[in-house]
Amino acid sequence: MKLLYKPFGLAMGALSGLLAGMVFKRVWRVAGREGDTPNATDRDRGWSEVVLAAALQGAVFGSVKAIVDRAGAAGFAQATGVWPGDEGTKQRKKES
Q1: CA distance 94 to 96
Q2: pTM for this structure?
Q3: 8 A C-beta contact, residue 93 and residue 22
Q4: What is the DSSP letter of 81?
Q5: Residue 21 φ/ψ, nearest 5 degrees
Q6: Cα–Cα dist 14/83, whole Å
Q7: How far apart are CA 14 and CA 21, in angstroms?
Q8: SS3 for 44-55, per residue?
Q9: % of the chain with per-residue pLDDT over 70
Q10: pLDDT (tens digit, 9 = 90+) per residue, 25-63?
């Protein structure tokens, strides 16, 4: 089952990246910043703005990835009856 989940997990990862990018752009606009996010090499942007954008982007990407991964695992489990990664969990419990 783990092998079946691999391509599904990769597709969910790509989807989470796209979704996180859209969410971050919207959050950045709502925060009252300019439409485009600063790059670390933007000469006209200050340190605080660049670091704030990077921290916010990391938080959004991490959160969205966790949400999509968890939802994908739950959907896979509902469709197959097996939670992805259960084999390792069962094995560790037997060894304990």
Answers
A1: 6
A2: 0.74
A3: no
A4: S
A5: -60, -40
A6: 20
A7: 11
A8: CCCHHHHHHHHH
A9: 83
A10: 888 888 866 668 888 998 988 899 889 889 999 999 999
Residues 6+ apart with CB under 8 A from 18: none
* CA 57/CA 59 separation, integer angstroms: 5
CA–CA separation, 21 vs 29, rounded Å? 12
CA distances from 44 to 9, 16, 25, 79 (A): 39, 31, 20, 51
Tokens 């938080």 belong to residue: 59
Q: Which two tokens stand for residue 22?
A: 């859209």
Contact 11, 71 (CB under 8 A): no
- Please provide the size of the chain in residues: 96
* Residue position matching structure tokens 């197959």: 80
Mean pLDDT calculated for residue range 13-24: 91
